[in-house]
Design brief:
The protein starts with 18 loop residues before the first helix and ends with a helix. By secondary structure, the protein is an all-alpha fold. Helices cover about 65% and strands about 0% of the residues.
């Protein structure tokens, strides 16, 4: 997580009117994250480890625990029954927290997009008016601004490969 340092001295003007509220909410979320019952120094999981954990259902963990209880000499050395059931309980308890956090993230994203959509429609309306305005003599002064608007509105599509394939070059000859 990125730490926001406290700068001693007089309070500076916020970047915009939403910044103080956003920073306060970030601090509350960080406090919740710090309180979450997790390992103190968790090692990063690889993508393969994440995939394995995601695709293994809780029923499989319970079936493994039942097998160990039925044949402790066979499965007892491989896994611990309490550890398996603890993992099931942890997922069941905190799965709802995860779902609520995802719902919150989606709600925040949609709130941002709603406000941005309103502004985007307005900006595109300004561009449509500006294109007509630069066709008259009075519009000469704002022509560079309209060109910049046009440039910023272009959707830049990614090319799969910037280099022209050798086969195409040979075919053109």
């Amino acid at each position: 997580m990125t730490q926001i340092p406290d700068i001693p001295g007089p309070a500076s003007e916020p970047a915009n009117k939403f910044t103080p509220d956003a920073q306060e909410r970030i601090l509350r979320l960080r406090a919740m994250a710090a309180e979450f019952p997790d390992e103190t120094e968790p090692k990063p999981l690889t993508s393969a480890e994440l995939r394995l954990a995601r695709v293994t259902p809780a029923a499989t963990l319970e079936n493994a625990a039942l097998f160990i209880e039925a044949a402790p000499a066979v499965g007892g050395g491989v896994a611990d029954v309490m550890e398996l059931r603890d993992a099931i309980a942890f997922e069941l308890a905190y799965g709802g927290v995860r779902d609520e956090a995802r719902a919150l993230a989606r709600r925040i994203d949609l709130a941002i997009m709603r406000r941005k959509l309103k502004a985007a429609r307005a900006a595109r309306g300004v561009y449509r008016v500006a294109k007509g305005f630069i066709t008259v003599d009075a519009g000469d002064a704002v022509r560079p601004h309209v060109a910049e608007l046009k440039r910023s509105l272009k959707v830049r599509r990614r090319r799969k490969n910037d280099a022209v394939p050798e086969a195409l070059i040979a075919a053109k000859k």
